[in-house]
Amino acid sequence: MMKQYSDLEFLRLSKWQRFLYRLAAFFCAIPRAIGNFFKNIGGFIKRAAVAVVNEFRDIGVTFVHGDWKTKTSYLVMGFGNLARGQILRGLLFLVFELVFIFYMILAGGYWLSMLPSLGKQGPVEGYDPVLDTYTTIYHDNSFKILLYGVLTIFFIVAFIYTWRLNVKQNKIMEQIIKKGGKLKSDKDDLKSMVDEQFYKTLLALPLTGILIFTVLPIVFMILVAFTNYDGAHNGYQNNLFTWVGLDNFNTMFSWTSNSGGGSQSYSATFGEILSWTLIWAFLATFTNYFLGMFVAMMINKKGIHLKKMWRTILVLTIAIPQFISLLYVSKMFAKNGLINLTLLDWGWIKEPLPFWDDATWARVTVILINIWIGIPHLMLIATGILMNIPADLYESARIDGANAWQQYIKITLPYMLFITGPYLLTSFTGNMNNFNVIYLLTGGGPSNPKASGASGSVGFTDLLITWLFKITTGSDAKYYLASVVGIMVFVVVAVISLVVYNVLPSIKNEEDYQ
């Protein structure tokens, strides 16, 4: 059990002892945090189960004690509204039910029935008497079955939610009538949609778009991880793909190589790329952050002339399309590029520097080039924040004898971290998925032979996002593996984001700068 110090005892410790105390406290808190995590999960499951039981109980009680209009609404949605004079609500409920029934009869039932198998008959060769030749005859489409099957499940969930809303409204209407109240008319409903309920009207379309274009693809991608969907089983033109359960996850987390010849396993390759991705994201985020802040402080310093000119020069790197600048810089640092040729002509080197041919050189080079790209953007952000720090704080610090470094540590940096904390988090996650810089500069190279043998053409500068791109391109595309990697990337980013978000000064000490 770790000894707990009081505030006074803690202040009496030396800086080194304070550091060791905080470090020990951090590691001692990990088991408690893990325990609280599982405890919260258990509590959530318990609350969810209680909520479900209460919903079923309320449905039963409403049916037993409801009048005939309410009971009829259990089969004919909107009947209670129509019978009680709420024509608009009733028609909306009824139309939604009719659309659902027709969809399930005409298409939804078929997609659901095919979902367990993902197709029964793939493409076959058949004789075409018109062309007098054998042609490919296509039958089931696994891709469509999975996509529309998931869409049908979403539609069923939406129907259940709407049906439950219909039951609740009947219960509320009965209670209002029993108390002698007056139900809302259609005119009142329309007025409410553009008045007190206007936010729901505005959010309806964006929410639908998020469900269809964001949530649905995410669910689809997760399900692909449990299939053998790849270039040889694309679900239609070649062969049908099928469910394989957890086989893909077993492959990903297995330390046994499938390729032989000294190649790494998928697990080792994923770990290696993940390590570099985290290192890259950390360095790319914080080098830009602190150097951009330093440049902004230098330009904003009193006595610096031509401030607008320096800012304009730096902003030019943002104005030029990144696609063009990165490709140009990539050629500059090539073995026969401008940098090597110039150094050779000057006699500074005897042979070309391996900017893109050596793993260490390549990784250091992309980090330095990313600094050149990112500093101007951070300079602009930092300039606006620094100009809003009260000058009285610095004046008071100087009177108290604080030097420039102490002013930076005690005033500038805390203020910057408070304002830009959420930006730092999004910048870190963005750098983890920074496809442009890596792919346009190195293409992921130089090649990593052992990793490439396990899972395609993998390079020493490949991030998880560029590896995903390589996995899903070419005739040997492994979409199922890309889906597994995508799930792992989501888990890593989500965990980091949640942990960092909860320790940000912007969240913990929100009242300090109000």
Characterize the largest beta sheet: strand count, sense, and whether it forms a barrel: 2 strands, antiparallel
Strand-pairing-aware structural class: mainly alpha
Second CATH tier, the architecture of the largest domain: Orthogonal Bundle
Q: What value does the Rg take, in angstroms? A: 31 Å
Count of discrete structural domains? 3
Helix content: 55-70%
Number of helices: 21
CATH superfamily of the largest domain: MetI-like
**How many β strands by DSSP?**
2
Compressed to H and E, one letter per element, the order equals HHHHHEEHHHHHHHHHHHHHHHH
Termini distance? 39 Å
Q: How is the CATH topology of the largest domain named?
A: MetI-like fold
Shape: globular
CATH class value of the largest domain: Mainly Alpha
Average pLDDT reading: 86
Order of neighbouring strands in the sheet with most strands = 1-2
Q: Strand-residue fraction?
A: under 5%
Structure keywords:
single chain; mainly alpha; MetI-like fold; 3 domains; two-stranded antiparallel sheet; 21 helices; 2 strands; 2% strand
Descriptive report:
With 514 residues, the chain is an all-alpha fold. It has three domains: 7-63; 79-245, no CATH class; 266-513, MetI-like (MetI-like fold). It has helices at 7-12, 15-65, 68-73, 79-83, 87-114, 142-178, 186-193, 198-224, 247-252, 266-300, 307-319, 322-332, 338-346, 359-386, 391-399, 404-432, 435-441, 449-455, 464-471, 479-503, 505-508; strands spanning 124-128, 133-137. The protein has a two-stranded antiparallel sheet with strand order 1-2. Helix 5 packs antiparallel against helix 6, helix 6 packs antiparallel against helix 8 and helix 11 (307-319) packs across helix 14. The longest helix has 51 residues, at 15-65.
